[in-house]
Design goal:
The complex is a heterodimer of chains A (about 575) and B (about 280).
Chain A lengths: L4 E8 L4 H14 L3 E8 L7 E9 L10 E6 L2 H7 L5 E9 L13 E4 L2 H7 L6 H12 L4 H11 L5 H16 L17 E4 H12 L3 E4 L6 H10 L6 E4 L3 H13 L4 E5 L1 H16 L4 E7 L16 H6 L8 E4 L3 H18 L2 E7 H5 L1 E4 L45 E3 L13 H21 L3 E5 L5 E4 L5 H13 L4 E6 L1 E3 L3 H10 L2 E6 L5 H9 L7 E4 L8 H8 L2 H5 L1
Parallel strand pairs in A: 1-4, 4-5, 5-6, 8-9, 8-10, 10-11, 11-13, 12-13, 17-18, 17-20, 20-21
Antiparallel strand pairs in A: 1-3, 2-3, 2-14, 7-14, 12-19, 16-18
Helix pairs in contact in A: 1-4, 1-5, 3-4, 3-6, 4-6, 7-8, 7-12, 9-10, 15-18
Chain B lengths: L20 H15 L7 E5 L14 E4 L5 H11 L4 E7 H7 L1 H10 L4 E6 L34 H8 L3 E6 L3 H13 L4 E6 L10 H8 E3 L9 H5 L8 E8 L5 H13 L7 H6 L4
Parallel strand pairs in B: 1-2, 1-3, 3-4, 4-6, 5-6, 7-8
Antiparallel strand pairs in B: 5-8
Classes of the chains: A alpha/beta (about 575), B alpha/beta (about 280).
Chain lengths: ~575, ~280
């Protein structure tokens, strides 16, 4: 009996599939289990199909779970919409309403009718079939019942006592309903953990970094960052501005940063496209800016609710002109926190735009993390308080960074622009100035590459097969490597967390140390592969596993792509 | 400590054509910043792109000549981040009404506490003579060989309609009058929009200056500037162009609203701690 389990709940909007998943996840996090919880929706604003998948494990996990061990379906018509993205494990138990017959394709699984709706009515809470289901899941998977009750009390705290009691009855009825036992209770599961989404971790990171100004425009799947900072920043004297569009959002960020504040915006692909020109201004005028881009399926409107890794080219190359910028990629929820703070640190120290690439899988899944891990050193902008008459805003320096004054400082005044300019900021169209200033601005990238060689390397120390990936792919890759190496393979991964400038030396050394290289990414155009080709030497026979997003990368898929187990067992 | 107009001058020579109305506007800006009691190091000038958007380079304050159309969002961010600073946005009619038109709408409605000076020459000058949003219908320009098909916008009408709390029109040739209007705009609590008719001798002809002077007349005594209806009578006038303060009301600025929000968010208690924020993510 495995202690690492995954279950899914699928229903129509209003069925509470997501709420039930939330309650289970929060309860398990509170008793120290490790949890990753994902949600999926149809395109409807209200109603429509929705689903929640929860993976629970006594040991740390990095992926959302390849397949469900149990599936609760309130309506098979809804399940049909998710079928291709919701694999069921061998022996999966499917629980469904008695009057809703399972489709023939589910015949191979054990289908058990459960009158969720009727049981909820019996409990006196007709809307609580999701809570009946939660009770059933609690019994099947030995979930922490007391903790679930606490989670329910917190969730329903604003409801009448009679409604809360009815929900507890619904839970008990579900719990007592005859069901198979699929997981043994884990003893003393340890300290309570936080359950956070990537967007929540990003917003919290902004507070930690000392961000006092946020401007944004609602766009899926980044909107929670705007909402959270709109709630949080006013509490600590900061400002959150919902602008008329993304052009204004990044404009306000540049203005606030010019005036001395640490400032950030968050968006998704279409918004990043609109922000390109202003990022050029941030780069040439050397005004720090932080943009969190939560990737979704593209191009154009694409698939707003699902993940992809296809904004890489735009982030590293987008915009006109020679435009130094930094691009970071976060690997999981906790890393969204660290990466966002790295972004502020780099932007403030080196006075340029920093783009953080998150994606929908990280941004909107909830994952357990330890509060103690949410610490990170914070760098402040170096501002000369008493500049003398020789002060020049864009003075030539070895690392390309010149002292930046802010409004209010007497003697620090300068007039700058998006035109090419001299050391004082005065416009110049001369070749010699352009060449010198380009060199100055690009020198910062060398200094950043040296100071921030951010990457993860994990797996076998003497790896035969090396996997290269970035962002949210790191999770399934990590679990796949663990599984493969447990069977005798020697596989390792190199995951750059700074994508521009890449940690070239470390990356090349890793590649050269492996007999075979496999690249894994969720981009049909193989953007990561092609980007690497342009900067480093890859073996000609490099394997590439690249496909469209809109479906999470699975551990099984990585193991198949690496294709090492046959060799090992042969 | 007060500062003189001279202290706001830089030694950089403007790129403008001889006879350009913007020279006089620049002169008025230097004088108005001094008259309004601004300190150079506590003033931020932001512009977009265009002939007139070069202006911040010629004023000794903190200055940012930014992107085409984006002066207002940048100025908004700067003002919110540094409320003690005087923030002035400047630019042309194409910059503010065409490519930046959306921001003009929203800066007006938000009543951001900044002054916005629009140098209106009825043409795109920097790109050498194409029709803009204030170019009269039928005018032949380099981009409208057979005449401009579009009706022109009166920027003041737009500002009033969108909620600006102070709206005025000036003429660059009247340095004294424009200086006074600029001074009042800077001192106004809220979004103050000043449309300055500023001739382009190169692309609108040597006569534009004289034509404007002949058309302008001061706002009549007794005009009720607190009335939108009354103010709207001095927009899209046709034969005449009225200069002076057309509209002036007091209403909460964006900063006022944000201060209220801060109080509502925080109450009278201390700022929340790290543990308070993280509490939402644990049972």
């Amino acid at each position: 009996m495995s202690e690492d389990v995954t279950f899914s709940i699928v229903g129509s909007g209003g069925d509470g599939a997501v709420v039930a998943g939330d309650l289970a996840a929060m309860a398990c996090a509170a008793v120290g289990l490790h949890v990753i919880k994902t949600e999926a929706y149809g395109p409807q604003i209200r109603g429509g199909e929705s689903s929640s998948t929860v993976r629970i494990s006594p040991v740390p996990i990095a992926a959302q779970g390849d397949a469900s061990d149990a599936l609760i379906v309130f309506r098979f018509a809804d399940f049909a919409r998710f079928r291709s993205e919701m694999p069921l494990a061998e022996g999966c138990i499917v629980l469904h309403e008695p009057d809703d017959a399972p489709p023939p394709e589910l015949a191979a699984f054990r289908c058990v009718p459960v009158p969720f709706g009727q049981l909820a009515k019996d409990a006196g809470a007709p809307g609580a079939k999701n809570i009946v289901a939660l009770g059933l899941l609690a019994a099947m998977f030995a979930l922490p019942v007391d903790s679930i009750r606490t989670a329910m009390r917190k969730r329903f705290r604003k409801r009448e006592a009679s409604i809360i009691d009815a929900n507890f009855r619904a839970f008990d009825i579900g719990f007592s309903f005859p069901s198979p036992r699929l997981r043994a209770e884990t003893q003393s599961e340890g300290q309570s953990r936080l359950l956070m989404s990537g967007n929540e971790a990003t917003a919290f990171a902004a507070l930690h970094a000392g961000c006092s100004f946020f401007a944004g425009y609602p766009i899926t799947p980044s909107t929670e960052i705007l909402q959270l900072l709109g709630e949080w920043l006013p509490k600590i004297g900061g400002t959150c501005l919902q602008t008329e569009d993304e052009l204004a959002a990044i404009g306000a960020v540049v203005g606030a940063s010019f005036a001395g504040s640490k400032a950030m915006t968050a968006t998704s692909g279409p918004g990043l496209s609109l922000m390109s020109e202003m990022l050029g201004l941030s780069s040439i005028a050397e005004i720090p800016s932080v943009v969190v881009n939560v990737q979704r399926g593209g191009p154009s409107t694409g698939i707003p609710t699902k993940s992809e890794q296809s904004d890489l080219f735009h982030a590293v190359y987008g915009g006109h002109g020679d435009m130094p910028r930094v691009v970071l990629g976060c690997c999981d929820v906790e890393d969204a926190f660290h990466t966002t703070i790295d972004a502020f640190n780099i932007a403030e120290e080196f006075q340029l735009p920093v783009i953080v690439l998150s994606d929908q899988l990280i941004a909107q899944r909830r994952e357990t993390i330890d509060a103690a891990s949410l610490v990170h050193d914070v760098v402040q902008r170096r501002v000369p308080q008493e500049p003398d008459e020789s002060y020049r805003r864009y003075a030539m320096t070895e690392d390309g960074v010149s002292a930046m004054t802010v409004p209010g400082i007497a003697g620090g005044m300068y007039q700058t622009n998006g035109l090419e300019h001299d050391e004082q900021g005065r416009p110049s169209s001369m070749f010699i100035t352009h060449e010198r200033m380009n060199a100055k601005r690009h020198r910062k990238l060398d200094a950043i590459a040296e100071k921030y060689p951010l990457f993860r390397r994990f797996g076998a120390a003497d790896a035969e097969v090396g996997i290269l990936c970035w962002g949210s792919s790191a999770g399934p890759v990590a679990e796949a490597i663990e599984a493969m190496n447990a069977k005798g393979a020697r596989v390792a991964a190199f995951v750059p967390r700074i994508l521009a400038p890449l940690p070239l030396q470390e990356l090349q050394a890793f590649i050269d140390s492996c007999a075979r290289i496999v690249i894994i990414e969720l981009s049909y155009e193989e953007q990561f592969h092609r980007y690497l080709r342009s900067l480093i030497t890859l073996p000609p026979e490099t394997d590439v596993h690249a496909r469209s997003g809109a479906k999470a990368l699975s551990v099984t898929e990585v193991i198949e792509a690496a294709a090492v187990l046959e060799e090992v067992t042969a | 400590m007060t500062h003189t107009a001279t202290e706001f001058r830089t030694d950089l020579k403007p790129v403008w054509c001889p006879g350009c109305g913007d020279f006089a506007v620049l002169n008025s800006v230097h004088r108005a910043l001094a008259a309004a009691g601004c300190a150079p190091h506590e003033t931020i000038l932001v512009s977009g792109i265009g002939c007139s958007s070069r202006l911040p380079g010629y004023v000794e304050t903190y200055g940012l000549n930014s992107l085409h159309g984006r002066a207002l969002p940048i100025a908004t961010g700067a003002k919110l981040a540094a409320p003690r600073m005087t923030v002035v946005a400047v630019g042309g009619d194409g910059d503010g009404l065409a490519i930046g038109g959306n921001h003009f709408l929203h800066a007006s409605r938000r009543n951001v506490d900044i002054a916005y000076f629009m140098m209106d020459n009825e043409i795109y000058g920097l790109t050498k003579g194409q029709a803009g949003p204030t170019t009269p219908t039928g005018d032949r320009t380099k981009s409208t060989t057979y005449g401009n098909p579009d009706p022109s916008i009166d920027p003041c009408a737009l500002a009033i309609a969108c909620g600006a709390s102070w709206v005025a029109r000036g003429f660059s040739g009247d340095v004294k009058g424009t200086t006074e209007l600029m001074t009042r705009a800077i001192q106004h609590h809220g979004f103050a929009f000043l449309n300055i008719l500023s001739p382009c001798v190169t692309w609108r002809g040597e006569e534009q200056h004289k034509e404007i002077r002949a058309k302008t007349r001061p706002v009549p005594a007794g005009h009720d500037a607190t009335s939108r209806e009354a103010a709207m009578r001095f927009t899209d006038e046709g034969e005449h162009v009225t200069t002076g303060v057309l509209y002036e009301v007091q209403r909460p600025t964006l900063l006022d609203e944000l201060s209220d929000i801060e109080l509502r968010a925080r109450g009278n208690g201390p700022a929340p701690s790290r543990a308070d924020f993280l509490g939402a993510f644990a049972l």
